[in-house]
Specification:
This is 3',5'-cyclic AMP phosphodiesterase CpdA. Belongs to the cyclic nucleotide phosphodiesterase class-III family. Residues 3-194 form the Calcineurin-like phosphoesterase domain. It holds the Pfam family Metallophos. This protein has 6 helices and 12 strands. α2 (47-59) runs parallel beside α4 (87-93). A 6-stranded mixed beta sheet has the order 3-2-1-10-11-12. A 6-stranded mixed beta sheet has the order 4-5-6-7-9-8, covered by helices on one side. With 250 residues, the chain is an alpha/beta fold. It has helices spanning 17-30, 47-59, 78-83, 87-93, 130-141, 171-181; strands at 3-7, 34-38, 64-67, 100-102, 106-110, 147-151, 185-188, 195-197, 204-207, 223-230, 233-242, 245-248. The two termini are 24 Å apart. Bound molecules: fe (ii) ion (2 copies).
Length: 250
């Protein structure tokens, strides 16, 4: 059995230190094999926010598969945004923005959906390119016999109640590619509210919440998600923060 901790939208710079400690404790308790981080590590893509995020993730002592989110490229300095949007990410997290991890049972494949600009008003909604999907097919083929998980920031479908959010560019193309490649589940964030979308014949779409940021939508708890492999597929449980710390979301 493999256990994957799915974190997203940590938003260091807009985080609660008490929640960071509670999250560290809960991750140690649940003992995952690997940590998937589905973007938005920072609030304003400031170097000190990246440093705090990298320190936290490094302190977990686990393999980390982290991809950027729309908050991880500069929004205030257009000069930095266009010239080298991932510079501070690379300095803190290393050069790879589509990392991978595998064991004998599962493979995690990072996919960077963040774009510095778009031919539409909402830059934050991101996009996938056909070459990225072609590379994903090659990367998936290099991991035969594994349950495959894609880790990306933006959801490929939005759950009910999020109809007004900007949609990820080329999401239908990506979903068709994921189905063709036999991807088991797609692990994302961005909405700050945990949910799972299951459709027959399609990969499970797992969207997790924000575990440590106060940037919660109304009525949402701080949350992260645990994905465990089982005899037939995977089991997803969201762990939400309450008075006694993190516990299964009911
Ligand atoms: Fe976010
Ligand atoms: Fe986001």
């Amino acid at each position: 059995m493999t256990r994957i901790a799915l974190l997203a939208d940590l938003h260091f710079g807009a985080h609660d230190p008490a929640l960071v400690s509670a999250l560290e404790e809960d991750i140690a308790l649940m003992a995952p094999d690997v940590v998937a981080v589905a973007g938005d590590l920072t609030y304003r893509a400031r170097p000190e926010e990246f440093t705090a995020a990298a320190r936290f993730l490094g302190g977990l002592g686990l393999p980390v598969v982290a991809v950027p989110g729309n908050h991880d490229i500069p929004s205030l300095s257009l000069f930095d945004r266009f010239l080298d949007p991932f510079r501070d990410w690379r300095l803190a997290m290393g050069p790879e923005m589509e990392p991978a991890w595998s064991n004998a049972e599962v493979g995690l494949l990072g996919l960077n959906t963040v774009r510095r600009a778009a031919l539409r008003k909402d830059w934050s909604a991101g996009r996938v390119s056909p070459p990225q999907l072609q590379r994903l097919a090659v990367r998936a083929a290099a991991l035969p016999g594994r349950l495959l998980f894609v880790v990306a920031h933006h959801p490929f479908l939005h759950p009910p109640g999020n109809e007004t959010r900007g949609k990820l560019g080329r999401a239908p193309l990506a979903l068709a590619a994921f189905a063709r490649l036999g991807i088991t589940a797609v692990l994302t964030g961005h909405l700050h509210r945990p949910t799972v979308i299951a459709n027959p014949g399609a990969p499970l779409l797992v969207i997790t919440g924000t575990a440590v940021s106060w940037r919660r939508p109304p009525g949402a708890q701080n949350a992260w998600s645990l994905i465990e492999t089982a005899e037939r597929g995977v089991i997803v449980s969201h762990r939400a923060h309450g008075p006694a710390g993190f516990a299964p979301l009911v």
